[in-house]
Design a protein that fits this description.
This protein has eleven helices and no strands. The two termini are 36 Å apart. Helix 1 packs parallel to helix 3.
Length: 240
């Protein structure tokens, strides 16, 4: 089988596996679009933000900074810190592809590095053909972008009660992420609880409450994550 046919087969396989991801992305991005509208962004701006950053937590962090009146530097640092985990995922993917893969493909692969696409890519047996990720991204990325665009557009016309009800879905997404991990690991449960407590104190205490929301995210992420890494380091598994 020639190379083009192989790449085409991998591409369609990626598209098939990316359909469930796209449906999930649409629902989450719709809620993010409503949050973006509340922060003052238009539907087009929310769509552009989503197509250039496939990251729910990172995008929500940026929207929070915008809503809090933060500057570009705060937004950039917040997004960088929240999205640092993708650097580790990219390192893992670099070991999954052919060592001789060209720089062009490596750069293209860096765009759709998300938790879900990373998950299905790492589950592929043997070497990963980059066209598999391209196919998954071809379906998932439009779902994410369209969801954010329509969410922001709907936020401009929906009644306030309906808008507030739909925005709760965003918090449900975060609960769906942290609760399973917290149930499996007591350290994660402790860190999550500590993060919630510190976030509450930052919003209530007189001095801490004066810190902008963007800076709060930066400080809490760096301090709590740093303390967790120091006191509860993850032991590397020994090779069999």
């Amino acid at each position: 089988m020639d190379e083009k046919r192989v790449n085409r087969s991998w591409f369609f396989r990626g598209m098939k596996d990316g359909i469930p991801i796209a449906l999930g992305y649409f629902a989450v991005a719709f809620a993010l679009g409503i949050a973006a509208k509340k922060a003052g962004l238009s539907a087009v701006q929310a769509g552009v933000m989503s197509i250039t950053m496939l990251a729910s937590a990172g995008q929500y962090g940026a929207i929070t900074v915008i809503a809090g009146g933060g500057g570009y530097l705060q937004m950039a640092v917040t997004t960088l810190i929240v999205n640092l985990r993708y650097l580790l995922m990219s390192c893992a993917l670099s070991q999954k592809v052919d060592p001789g893969l060209g720089m062009r493909h490596r750069l293209l692969l860096s765009y759709p590095v998300t938790d879900e696409i990373f998950g299905i890519a790492m589950a592929v047996e043997g070497r990963l053909n980059p066209f598999y990720n391209y196919g998954a991204a071809a379906v998932a990325s439009p779902g994410w972008t369209l969801g954010a665009f329509l969410g922001a557009a709907a936020g401009a016309i929906l009644p306030r009660r309906v808008e507030n009800a739909l925005s709760v879905a965003l918090y449900g997404m975060f609960l769906a992420i942290i609760i399973p991990a917290a149930k499996k690991n007591k350290v994660v449960a402790l860190i999550v609880s500590l993060s919630m407590l510190c976030s509450f104190l930052f919003s209530r205490l007189p001095v801490l409450g004066q810190i902008s929301s963007g800076m709060q995210i930066i400080l809490l992420t760096v301090l709590i994550a740093g303390a967790a890494a120091f006191f509860f380091p993850v032991k590397e598994e020994e090779n069999a």
